[in-house]
């Protein structure tokens, strides 16, 4: 779906006009293409003294063969040396005016109280204006719950406001993220840092994600094909976001089992056929749908590694005008069906070890939206389901997480009234709508066998929308 | 064949004050300066009429006619003419390399005594004709008849007569040494302030070395100059801050103040085996314990041109079972303040030490109060070939005055990506 505003403001005349009337000029975000490096450009790694994450970050930067720079400070230099990084020396005082970075990565875990937040200021103050287009700002911290006391917890919590504000300050498609890495979870950082560094996270900004410890290791993973040998069920796979999810998981090496309603069978077969996957045609709200899905997966694939609950609908009406059917249908498809399918898959042990359930929530579920009481309830319920099921699913050495898309250019949003649509597109830090592939990449990150440290979390793919938490 | 190794004693040294380019020594040749310096050394140790094992000396800027300069100098002194001599050339490492060569022969028992020296003049510098003119002149030389000579001469064009003044630039990069040092300074984030502070310390220490009389028997007046011409005892960070950058562009951090000036001068050191020293009733000041040279690949790997000592010193330490902190004095040649600071930062840096030097842990830091305690090249000046002799002679005396067993480290960087380093110990 094309974005006419973006096309217009990026023409020379459009640029002049949009500047004069003060409209934000959305830049063309860099997006991942197969074979591209994780990060294409210099990375500045910094650390507050006494942190515990610079080492893990340096290991990842070494693995992705990034060109790394660090200040001549013990923590960062030792981390770089241990990781085998031939890191260049950064000095704000003597650096060239033109020096730019594709990413700024800062280990803030050493910040023990609010006064030490100054370390974060000192690292970013001279560097924040040196971030390239589609650049990345990534702050690593300790989850407040894992902190050693109230002062550390307070300071670590403060990072949220700091990072979210950076997301709103940086320009030209750059993003900012806060990654809380729990105690003993340092070895789980790689999949998340790779995702956030790369253009795969183009439309994700201002997010706070928490990585926990996990017994599952990603040793020996092929990062180009993390899903090799795995099977992935994607509901609502024939079009829109679901199709993009199927494509990205197939790219990552998965055998995709695309599911959709009988009415869309031919579209489904066309989409999934291209990917060498298989199809399952049914309505997920049917009484026997969970059983049929479980049986299909067990019979044809011996179980499943990734389940993506993408199928969803909207039936918008203000509450007073909403019909029974509208309410029931949205709740049934968007929420109850997911619960029933999950329960059945777990009961039949169809979800294999290191399995992943990834649910599609929505910004409406986070923030609420007039005319969407049914939809927002269902999508908020998805978040509740993810939180509540995570501990149990974690016990069976699998994970459940959710992605909450903001404004994504699809048939669903193309059907919106123009004013709502334009507002939706612009009201975020990146000043544009996302693409289905942006949601798909976030799902692929959760679905990766290397993402065992992520469980019960929600990430928004919304360009840091102005609404919602 | 000799299989034992003897201790090599430093008996002492002397130099003439170093002058700035086109200063008091403008008309003095390398031979004048070196001969005068050797004479002073001969006088200091009563060497007149002695046959020494050898005299080894060298300089960087030499005329082609000076193909045997050191031997010519010896013939002009009161040494017995049976004393052999040869020239050495290893850019700024020349003087120390000469000392290492003589020391190694003494250690192996091939000779019992020797002088290591060095000189350079940037004023009486050789001027080369440009390549076109050289070809014409060679043609004239080959011509057999006056007519043929005239014909060859007629081919001359005015632009062919422009001379080639020697430039202090690296043949393979085309960059001057200062520009290379500026690249290093930038790579290591060395600030202007740090460089100026190091420069002030150099001047302050050298001035004190004069004032306390430490240099009285190490420096002998020449052509009316009694102290190093470049020395500014009242140098301060505030004054240095006013200078404009000369390398590294407009925002560069390197100035004429924190870089060594082109200079003229010469130095010489007397080395011997212990038996020779005893027989001549000359006390041993210090021993040359070990030495190590190294080189960097500044051409292909783009390593810092002046970083070779960072490679040499760890090898030296390992071989001698020492750590970087095991020294009472560090004599790090100050080609540029930035280069000294880069060297120190590199040894402290876990990344550099692992990636470049292959060390498990950083080599370490040094106590800055032990660095160039009696002044360095920034204050004294740096006649390329003469710096090694200045340092060896000064360090020997410092060690002698400190205490028996005290230890000093010498580190000299040189053009061509070279580094020459040595350890000395007090007697
Ligand atoms: N497009 C956006 O901006 C946006 C924003 C937030 C969340 N989302 C969510 O993303 C998901 C995909 O949205 P989309 O924009 O691609 O919508 P879409 O309408 O293009 O695709 C949804 C797919 O789900 C299938 N589906 C619907 N009901 C089903 C049922 N009962 N059984 C099986 N399949 C069924 C549809 O046939 C369709 O293929 C939805 O969950 C939606 O709520 C979208």
Figure out the total of helices of chain A. Answer: 16
Contiguous uncertain segments of 5+ residues of chain B: none
CA radius of gyration of chain B = 22 Å
Biggest β-sheet description of chain A:
7 strands, parallel
Please describe the biggest sheet of chain B, giving its number of strands, its sense, and whether it closes into a barrel. 10 strands, mixed
Q: In the CATH scheme, what's the topology name of the domain at 177-213 and 289-426 in chain B?
A: Peroxisomal Thiolase, Chain A, domain 1
Q: What proportion strand of chain A?
A: 15-25%
Multimer state: heterodimer
Biggest chain pair interface:
A-B, 22 and 17 residues
| Distinct small molecules | nicotinamide-adenine-dinucleotide
Report the count of strand segments of chain A: 14
CATH architecture of the largest domain in chain A: 3-Layer(aba) Sandwich
What's the CATH superfamily of the largest domain in chain A, by name?
Answer: NAD(P)-binding Rossmann-like Domain
Percent of residues of chain B in beta strands?
Answer: 15-25%
The best one-word shape of chain B is globular
What is the name of the CATH topology of the largest domain in chain A? Rossmann fold
Number of domains of chain A: 3
